[in-house]
Amino acid sequence: FEKLCSISLSHINVYACLVCGKYFQGRGLKSHAYIHSVQLSHHVFLNLHTLKFYCLPDNYEIIDSSLEDITYVLKPTFTAQHIAHLDKQAKLSRAYDGTTYLPGIVGLNNIKANDYANAVLQALSNVPPLRNYFLEEENYRHIQRPPGDIMFLLVQRFGELMRKLWNPRNFKAHVSPHEMLQAVVLCSKKNFQITKQGDGVEFLSWFLNALHAALGGTKRKKKSECGEVLGGPSGAAVPLLSTCCPPQPLSP
């Protein structure tokens, strides 16, 4: 879920309680996480930004290799060698809840009316050149954007979601797209929402163009990875949409 405190609704300095899964701000005296640890005797917390573990209320860092599975699920990483072999193996992975799944073929939670967006995101996650680019965060981590530009949030969230969909060590055989969809709502100025059904083709067109622009592409001159993969020689993100998603005849 979106990384904000369940009490203050702040995104700053948020910790996850590893007993109940709720998010709380801070770990100092009188902070929400501190109070939660005292009242409910829940003592192990994870900083969602630094990925460090702490014991509260004693407030000391926990260093234990057995907790690495948790940090990997939050932030999966892929080597170039791993990415190169993704399409050459069909090995099933076993989630921690016991279910088996094929990385990349993973369900997305339907929060309310976001199935139209889920279908598009899952389809894009299986376009190899686009997938490979976003699985390596270093490809776009250092792209310069103007101060206050929120559109690059789409790039970051799409990369995070892509890595979770292809994670071979997931806790469950499905993934929550909540943070990705929150970015969509914000960056589209609520034209596409979680609570209201949208048109999949319209969403695909907007999303690809938004990624293309956020990665530094333009309609006429500059190209981006998104434009290169789906836009053909011109580098724009949409020319091939009519080929990828031809109009569907209406049912009688």
Number of helical segments with 4 or more residues: 10
Q: SS-based structural class? A: alpha+beta
- Identify the CATH class of the largest domain: Alpha Beta
**How many beta strands in the DSSP annotation?**
9
Q: Globular, elongated, flat, extended or rod-shaped: what is the shape?
A: globular
Query: What's the SSE pattern?
Result: EEHEEEHHEEEHHHEHHHH
Helix content: 25-40%
End-to-end distance? 41 Å
- List the domain count as a whole number: 2
Brief description of this entry?
It is built from ten helices and nine strands. With 252 residues, the protein is α+β, with helices and mostly antiparallel strands.
Please provide a written account of the structure.
The protein is an alpha+beta fold and 252 residues long. The protein has 2 domains: 14-71, Herpes Virus-1 (2-Layer Sandwich); 77-217, Alpha-Beta Complex (Cathepsin B, Chain A), CATH 3.90.70. Helix content is 35%, strand content 10%. It has helices at 32-40, 68-74, 80-84, 115-124, 128-135, 152-165, 178-187, 200-214, 225-230, 241-244; strands at residues 14-17, 23-25, 44-47, 53-55, 60-62, 93-94, 100-101, 107-108, 174-175. It has a 5-stranded antiparallel sheet, with helices on one face. Strands 6-7 form a two-stranded antiparallel ribbon. It has a two-stranded parallel ribbon with strand order 8-9. Strand 3 and strand 4 form a beta hairpin. Helix 4 crosses helix 8 (200-214) and helix 6 packs antiparallel against helix 7. The protein is globular, with a radius of gyration of 20 Å. The model is unreliable at 232-252 (pLDDT under 50).
